[in-house]
Amino acid sequence: MLKEISPPLANIRDVLVGTAVEDEREDGSSAIGYGLTLAKAAGAHLTVQSASWRLSGDDAWLGDFDYEGVAVIDRRLDALARSIADRSAGDAAQAGVVCTTEAPSLPYPDIVSRLAGRARLHDLTVLDIGPRTYDLDREMIEKALFHSGRPVIAVPPGHDAFAARRIIVAWDGSAQAARAANDALPFLRAAEAVEIVSIGDEPETDDAVPGAEFAPHLARHGVSVSVNDLPRGESIAATLRTQAGLFRADMIVMGAYRHSPVREFFFGGVTRSFLRGSPAPLFLAH
Length: 286
Hints:
Elements: E1 14-21, H1 30-42, E2 45-53, H2 67-95, E3 99-102, E4 105-106, H3 108-119, E5 124-128, H4 136-148, E6 152-155, E7 166-171, H5 175-183, H6 185-190, E8 193-199, H7 211-220, E9 225-230, H8 236-247, E10 251-255, H9 269-276, E11 282-285
Parallel strand pairs: 1-2, 1-5, 2-3, 2-4, 5-6, 7-8, 7-10, 8-9, 10-11
Antiparallel strand pairs: 6-11
Pfam family, one: Usp
Domain UspA: 165-284
Protein name: Universal stress protein
């Protein structure tokens, strides 16, 4: 009797979505919709952490602010975060997804630390790519990725629904790229087309594995894979972004680096560029 083959996303059993309300003018979270539809596709449990950034307390930068006024803002942000959590729970119930919600009100550093701790308890974490050059969303991505041991899907605005029919694997032959591709295997196996994109540049290590040599490994795992070697062009990030558009990629898989020994969290140049604006959700692993 043949053993039944599990669905491609069956190994994903729990998904964490993290959001942080910093401003009463929040435009909404694409990560919540993306995480909900991903959990539904995988038959996974969904956890939504909708945190509010509490301004009162030990934040020394507040200085001579009107603490009564700050307390009012805290209550408003907390109410907004709870409203987001409640709405997420309702949407999940309507979609038939088992969902747990949390709405902690915490000072800035505690939000990112709590999120990283919770990320260790889930198969993957889904977070927003914020619209600003540097914000709490990006800090959450960095902390969750480098301190949880789990992959992160970073979702740009406008990508409210999970899709992974066509996936690009950004390949530089490094251990981080191999780790990212391995962690993304459930998505790669489920995809209609996967393209390993290697962009002309000197490899970072002498023992880097070319994309053409890595492709058979993915093929043995049932991935429909091809290899595309491209010239560097204007920059690696620009070339990769253009190719993602031409390939109509639903997801981009890339390894994340910590390049700076001075700053605790600091992405390498290509990843940092994509976190400022990506044509598709990023599957990141370290």
